[in-house]
Specification:
Layout: H1 4-20, H2 35-46, H3 51-66, H4 71-83, H5 85-91, H6 100-123, H7 125-129, H8 146-154, H9 159-174, H10 179-190, H11 196-210
Helix pairs in contact: 1-2, 1-3, 2-10, 3-9, 4-5, 4-8, 6-8, 6-9
Amino acid sequence: MLARKETVDEIVSREWNMFQAVNEGGARADCQDDRVTFDGMRRGQFDAWSQEAAESYLGDLEAAEGAGRNLVAEKYIHMMKTTEPAKHGLLSAKVPQPTAAARALAEELSGKLLVQTRELFGNYPYVTGSGRPLYATQDFGGVTSIETYQLGELLTYSERTLGALLRHVETLEGEGVSFAREVLVNSASFYGYKSLDEAEAATKERIDAIGFEFSYGCQACGPCDSCNPASCAGCRA
């Protein structure tokens, strides 16, 4: 059994190799040459996982490699269901589809994490507002929402990994801890901030200085018919 750090090291290394093969033969994206940021963001996620879930996902990656699959590429194909439906229709048949049980677990997990992330959007509007929009209904102009990205990734996990991750998220909930917040704390730490409050204040100061407001739509309330236009003028629902 690998130690905690070694498990995460292996996961990130294998994901990086898969990431390098995305769009193979085509133009490379700038982020495919930024190993430092890739490592920081992915470690920010997996450091919040339980060891059980991390070991299970490492097994998923190893099995995928053995079968000639690229889970990172498959994630992007799943995401295309809402961002590029026509292209998704052409590519989805080329990748293994999750079982009904795996899809149900992925959707349950996604729902829980969206609730937690929605709270973060309300508490830390500058930090969260400078990233992706929250809901799939806000996918537009090449911008992919947290919901779409998150579910696309979850659909590449095995039932075993999804089950372990769901148990971990529920255990944290029982302890009054938000898994989504833990991930965001780790990401802020990667950028040198000691806390989310520090990151929020610094982001607000930077945005105020340039006079630019990030708004991808309804952040604090989410897409709904009862959205108050006075407090959420950007709602796209």
